[in-house]
């Protein structure tokens, strides 16, 4: 299984969610997307977007300065 990585550091909402949506649309079924960001509100917004649209949130890491969320299509 390949894991695609999307770096949204330096972006504020709604851009991280919009970029995550586009990346997930292009991702093959069953693959995973790792989103890395530094805008805290985006973490919850991306998580909510993924769950609302039927994607599986595999893991969330929050190191304080940055976050990493892994989503499976």
Task: List the defining traits of the structure above.
73 residues; alpha+beta; Translation Initiation Factor IF3; four-stranded mixed sheet; 2 helices; 4 strands; globular
Question: What's the arrangement of secondary structure elements?
Answer:
Elements: E1 3-7, H1 15-26, E2 32-37, H2 40-52, E3 56-62, E4 67-72
Parallel strand pairs: 1-2
Antiparallel strand pairs: 2-4, 3-4
Organism: Methanofervidicoccus abyssi
InterPro entries: TusA-like (IPR001455), TusA-like_sf (IPR036868)
Domain UPF0033: 6-30
Outline of the structure:
This protein is α+β, with helices and mostly antiparallel strands.
Task: Give the neighbour order of strands across the main sheet.
Answer: 1-2-4-3
Q: Report the sheet-strand fraction.
A: 25-35%
- Number of strand elements: 4
Number of domain modules: 1
User: So, the CATH homologous superfamily?
Assistant: TusA-like domain
Could you name the CATH class? Alpha Beta
Annotated CATH topology: Translation Initiation Factor IF3
Taking the sheet with the most strands, its summary is: 4 strands, mixed
User: Helix- and strand-based class?
Assistant: alpha+beta
What is the distance, rounded to the nearest whole angstrom, between the alpha carbons of the first and last residues?
12 Å
Uncertain regions: pLDDT < 50 for 5+ in a row?
none
Helix content: 25-40%
SSE run:
EHEHEE
If helices are DSSP runs of H or I spanning 4 or more residues, what is the number of helices? 2
Shape, per Cα inertia axes: globular
Radius of gyration: 11 Å
Q: Can you tell me the CATH architecture?
A: 2-Layer Sandwich
- The average pLDDT is 96
Organism: Methanofervidicoccus abyssi
Pfam family, one: TusA
Protein name: tRNA 2-thiouridine synthesizing protein A
Domain UPF0033: 6-30
């Amino acid at each position: 299984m390949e894991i695609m990585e999307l770096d949204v550091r330096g972006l504020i909402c709604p851009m991280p969610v919009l970029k995550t949506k586009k990346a997930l649309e292009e991702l093959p079924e069953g693959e995973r997307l790792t989103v890395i960001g530094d805008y805290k509100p985006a973490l919850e917004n991306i998580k909510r977007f993924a769950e609302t649209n039927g994607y599986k949130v595999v893991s969330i890491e929050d190191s304080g300065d940055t976050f990493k969320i892994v989503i499976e299509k």
